[in-house]
Structure formats: structure tokens, C-alpha cells
Amino acid sequence: MNIACCVVLYNPDENTVKNISTYAPAAGEVFAVDNSDEPDEDIINRIKNIGANVTVISMHGNKGIAAALNEGVRKASEAGFKYLLTMDDDSFFTGTVLPEYTERARRLFEEDDKVIEVGIHNSGDKDDDLVVNNENPDWLITSGSIIDIDKTIAIGGFLEKLFIDEVDREFCYRAVAKGYKMRRVLDLTMQHNLGAPIRGKIFGREFEAMGHSKIRKYYIFRNCTYVMKEYPQTRKPYRHFLFATWLKTILVEDDKINKLKYMRMGRRDARKGKFGKLEV
Q1: pLDDT in tens, 208-240
Q2: Cα–Cα distances in Å, from 201 out to 124, 137, 247, 249?
Q3: How far is Cα 156 from Cα 136, in angstroms, rounded to an integer?
Q4: Where are the alpha helices (DSSP H) in 79-134?
């Protein structure tokens, strides 16, 4: 399966270089789309030198993950590729996982022409109300997913006004609404970094909070509010998720007052139809 790859960069470091090196040899072309406001030229040059098939594309500042993904889709389409592997810069593959995965994905696409995206089990997967590990998921994260480029373009690509957060889920919900399907390969695993969660306990029950910044809290609450409005089937699980995020922030996170303020701001802006990058 001859596929291109799009990896979205944001302040990449040495680990990013190592991560890209795990899958660049198996890709026809790698489009490294850089969203950094102040790129580290040494790291950028090291990424370029991974292989002749690696091209770094500057977005000239942070334009959001959706815009970066759409740029990767456009470049891959122009280069004649049918499929695109989308990666975060902190994700990577080990051993023979990638060639095995792409072969499985090829068969899934060929068996059903309604499949628009194939995903893979990743090391950060866990079962909760928003993540269901099955072969026929409602949505997939972008990192490690393989998308059909023509179908992606046909449904309008990734929604740039969301900027960051919920971009992957909104894409999937929109695709399903247009008659497409997602598939997931469960017995192969991609390595995916979810960061260092903050652990807490309430009424004897342990939980984890992601400790996102106030800016990320804004995007999470704004974009979840938007998705709930557009896709009614998400309302119950998303309300549970937002309440849990709010409660965990109060219980174990720092900068609580500002984070709560930005959560409210996010919901307010969604209701006002104010999207794009938050200017602070």
C-alpha cells in the first residue's frame, strides 16, 4: 500500500525526529507540516534530513491542527496518493507494526467502499464514555489513522474553525452523517503519548485529570459545545465528559479560577458562533 504521511509539528524536539524516523521509510512521502510560531531551525533541518521523501511545510505560525491536516491532504492529493497516514509528532511505530497495519488497512478499504478512515489501537487507548475499543468505532483520533484522500476532500476536509480539540471527532461524525464508515485494527498497537495525568481520589475512587492549560480548557469546552449542537447523539456522553473535566479541575488541578473562567468563555463563544484561534 503506497501511502503518504502527514505529521503535524508544534515546537518539535529530538523525540520528534526519532518518532518520524520510525515510519518515514515505509511512506511514499512524508509531509511534516509545522505549526510552530518560532521553529527551531536545527530540529527542522534534522527532520528534513531523515530521508529524501521528507518535506517540511511551514504554516508560518500556529494555524491550528485542522488547517495543518488539510495542507497535508492537499499536498498528498497533488502528489497522486490515494491514502494518507496522519500522525501527531509524539506518536511512533515499533518493529513491523506499520507495514502490517497498512496491509490490513488496504484490505479494509477494498472490502467496503464506504470506509473513509481506518485507525489502529494505540498505547493510550482506554475504555470510557467517549472511547470505545471496537472494530467499528464511531470516531477515531487522527494520530495513526489512515484516510481516503478523495473521500476526505469530498466531505470538506477537517473543520478549521475548531482550530484544535474535537477536530478528529467532528470529522468522523460528519463522515458518518454522509454515509461513510470508520474501521479500527485492534491487534496492532501504535505508541501514542497522552502526557502525564494528575491522579486524584474522591469517595475512595481513583481518577485521572489531564491538567490541560486554561487555553486548552477553552477549546475543549467551546468545541464540545459546538459538536453537541451539530450532532445530537453526542450530547449525553459529552455532557458527562465536560462535567467530569470541570469537577477534576476543581479537585486536583492548579490555576483553578482561570481554568474555570476559560471553560465558561469557551461555552459562551460556541453559543455566540465565535470560533477560530483564541486571541489572548
Answers
A1: 777 889 999 999 999 999 999 999 999 999 999
A2: 21, 30, 12, 13
A3: 22
A4: 97-111
Angle, CA of 179, 155 and 152, to the nearest 5°: 100
Residue 138 pLDDT greater than 70, yes or no: yes
> What residue ranges of the chain are covered by domains with CATH 3.90.550.60?
4-192
Tell me 186's DSSP state: E
Please report how many Cα atoms fall inside a 13 Å half-sphere around the Cα of residue 145, on the Cβ side: 24
Identify the CA nearest to 97 among candidates 29, 148, 22, 32. Answer: 22
The whole-angstrom separation of Cα 243 and Cα 220 is 12
The CATH architecture that domain 4-192 belongs to is Alpha-Beta Complex (3.90)
- 115 with 180: CB under 8 angstroms? yes
d(CA 66, CA 166): 10
Q: Which helix (H) or strand (E) holds 181?
A: strand 181-192
CB atoms within 10 A of CB 51: 14
Query: What is the percentage of the chain residues whose pLDDT exceeds 70?
Result: 93
Q: Where are the alpha helices (DSSP H) in the chain?
A: 14-21, 41-48, 65-78, 97-111, 149-154, 167-177, 214-230, 235-252, 256-272
Digit-coded pLDDT (tens) for 79-108? 999 999 999 999 999 999 999 999 999 999
